[in-house]
Queue: 4 jobs
Job 1
Amino acid sequence: MSASGKIADAIVFAAWKGVAYVRQYVIPSNPQSVGQGDQRIILGGTGRACGKVSVAGGFNTKLSALGVVPSGQSKQSYLVKYIIDHYLSSVTDYNTELAELTGATAYTAWQTGATALGISNFDLAYATISAYDRGLGLRLLYKTQQALGFTGAVYTVTISAMTGADIDAFVAEL
C-alpha cells in the first residue's frame, strides 16, 4: 500500500527511491532568500553548462571510458556534483573561479565557445553573487577533464595557455 500527498497543510506522505515516508509539511519562510539565490546561481549555471555535454561527443566517450560515473547516476549530475565539490563549494570559491575566468587572456574565447554551445549567463534578482558567466561553465568543464586525466591534444593544454583555437577544439569535443 502507498500514499502520497498532503493532509491539511500538516503532514506529507511520499516515497523516495521506493521507500515510503511521512514528514511534517513545511512552508519555507523565504523561498527567495539571498543564500538560496546564491546557491541556485551556482547550481543552475553549472547544470546548464554540464547539460551541453553531448552523448555523441568525445568528452562523453572519454568520461565513459574512465568509468567514474556511478551506476544509476547521469553524466550531467556527476559532472555538476564534481564541479561543485571541487571548484564551487562556497561563494568564495565561486568568486575566485569567476575572477580567474574574467582575468584570463582567453576570456572572450571562453565566452564565444560557451555561446556556440548555447550556454547563457544565469542570474537571479534575489542573489548577491555575480551572475553565472556562460564562459565559467565551459572553463570548469575543461578543468574537470584535466583533473580526471583525459588524454589527447585537445585535453592537455594547460588552462592558462588556452587560445581561441584550443577552446574551439574543446567545444567541438563536447
Note: Residues 34-50 form the longest helix (17 residues).
Job 2
Amino acid sequence: MKSFDNEWIFQAFEHHRTFFTKRMFGGLAAYLFGRMMMVLVEPTKTGRWKWHGVLLCTEREHQPSIVKEFRHLAPHDVMSKWLYIDSRHKHFEPTMERVASAMARDDARFGIQPRSKTVSRIRKRA
C-alpha cells in the first residue's frame, strides 16, 4: 500500500477513536469526528494532477475565518470549495501542525459530512 509523504500530520489525532483514513482521488483522506477533514495529495502517475500538499475540507462560509487564522492557506485553484497548502511552501510544516491541532480539538470550521452512497445515487437519478 502506498504511503504518503505527509502522513506525519495525522499524529495529532491518530489516537482518537474516530480517526481513520481512506483512499480518495488518488490521495489519502483523513476522517475525524465523523467528518472528512483533509486529503493528502501527491502527483499522480497518470499526470492527472501535479499537486503535492494538503486539501483541507471545509464549507465556503468558514474559509475567511480559517484563512485569517492560518494565513498560508488559500482556496485551491481547481477545488476552490476547499483550502490548500503546497508541501513546498516555506510555512507548510508549522501551518499543518497548527491546523491538525485545531482539528484534533474538534474545531467545527474544519471537515465536511461525507455523503452516503444512497444519497449520492438518489441525486444522480434526479
Note: The first helix runs from residue 63 to 69.
Job 3
Amino acid sequence: MEKAETPFKRCSMCRKEWLTREEFLADRSMCLDGYQVNRRRIEAGLPPEGILLFTHRIKACGTTLGVSASKFRFAR
C-alpha cells in the first residue's frame, strides 16, 4: 500500500491542500498579509524563525494561515 504524500500546507477552514511550496506560492488566491516575529528566539540571541501570515482569499474561505518562514529557505 502506497503512503499518501504529505501536503506542504492544508487550509484549516476549506481543507484545500497545496502539495508543494511552489504550488502554494503560485496560487493567486493566497495573499501574504504579514510576518509574526518570534521574540523569544530573538531574546535568546537566535535567528527569529518567525511565521509568515497568508490569507486564503476565496469567497468560501478567507482564513489566515501561518507558515514557518524556515519553510521558505531555498537551497543555494
Note: Strands lie at 9-10, 17-18, 30-36, 51-56, 64-68.
Job 4
Amino acid sequence: MSKSVSILGGGLAGISSAVFLHDAGYEVKLFESTSKLGGRTFSFDDAETGFRFDNGQHILAGWYKNTFQLFDKMNHIPDLSLHQNLHVYFRDKNGSNLEFIAKGDNPFVAAAKGFMNYQPLNLKDKLSLLRLRELIEIDFPEKIKGRKLSWLLNYLKQTDNLIKYFWEPFVFAVFNTSPEYVDSELFYNVLATAFDDPAANTLIIPNDYLDNMIAKPFIEYSKNKISINYNSAVNEFKIKDNRIMECILENGEIIKSDLYVSAVPFHSFRRLFNTDIFEDHFDSFIDLKPASILSVFLVPDKMPVNLKHKYYFGMVGILDGLMHWVFFKENYISVTISAPEYTVNGFEELSKEDVCVRVEKEIRDYFPEFRDTHFKKVKYFREKRATFLPETNSVNSRLNTVCEIKNLFIAGDWTNTGLPSTIESAVLSGKKCMEAIVKI
C-alpha cells in the first residue's frame, strides 16, 4: 500500500509537490487555505474595464528545466512566446530605443557578443566586462559570502554606465529588487545555473492568462488522482517524538497522513507550530523581509497597433523611471514596479492616485505613441508580500527540504533552492520534496 502525503498549500510549490509525488506513486491530498490554487500566478476579472488581468507579468527562461518537466507531467502544453535569442528593448528618458541582443548556442559567447554590440556602452564599459572572468575562479564563491551584489559589481570594476544600462534592469527582472538588496552568492548561483544551460538565452513570456498556465491544468490533471481541498487553512501541527501525529485545520478537521509537506508562504510558516515547538526545531530561522510587487494597468481608448511586434514580445525595460518594466498587451498596458518600498524614494508617502498619475505621465514621456492618448482607466494592484528581499545572509532563513521533524518536508520558492523567488524555484522546491521522500 502506498504511503499517504498531505500537502499544505496550493501555490506553485504545493502543486509541484503534488504532481511529482503522485507520479512517484504516493497517495496525495492537497489542502489550500483559500478558494483558489496557484499562489501568485493568478488572474482576475475587472468589472470596471471588462478585462481579465494577470497578477503581474511573469517571465520564464529557457533554463527553467523543472518547470517544463512539471508541464510534461501534467500533459500540458502552455501557450508561450519564446525565442532562442535573448532580445530585450530598453527606453531612457531621452526616448532612446536601446536593444540588447544575444545570439548563439553558447550562452557565454552570445552574451559577450551582445555586450559588444550594445549601443549605450563605450569602450571603457566593455573592457570592464573582462573582470567577469574572475567569476570562474575556484575560490570565488568564498570571496563573496556575506556581500551585497552592489559590492560585487564595484569589486569587479563594473562602470556606472554598465550598471545603469544592463545590470540594474537585469537584477530587477530576476530578483525583483535593486543590486543593493541582493546577495552576491545568490546572484552567482543564478549566473552559474543559467550559463550551464544552452537554453540560457531563451526568454519566454506566457501568451495565456496565468491561471491557465498551471492552476487549471493541475485541476484537470488531479481528477481521480489527487484530492484537492479548498478553504482548508492549517491551525497547528501536533508533534510527538519529532514526528507529526496529526494536523488540525482551522475548521476543526483533523488530518492524519504518513508524511506532510509544508508548501505555505514564508510569512505563514511560523504559524504552523506553537512557539516552543518552533524554537526547538527552527531556532536559527530569522523571518525573511517581505517585498511587494506593484502592477499598474492602463486601458487606453485605443491601443496603437503592432506594439507587441515593435518591441520584442511587447516588453520594454525602463531606465531612470518609477516604472521598471512595461508590457504591451492587446488592449492595455501592464507596468511592473518591483519592491517599491525599498527602491522608490518616498514611496510610502505616495497615494495610489499619485502612483497612477506618475505612471501615466511616464508612459507618455517614454513612448511618443501615447502622447495624445486618453486612458479611460488606470488600475493599481499591489501585492504587499509577493516575494522576499534576497538580501545578504537571507540564505540563513531559507530552510532546507528536510528538517528535524522526521515526516515533515518543506517546499516554497523561499526555501533553500539556490535560486531567487521565481516560478522555477517554487517548482524545484516541490521536486526536491519528492526526491527526499522517496529516499526514506
Note: The mean pLDDT is 92.
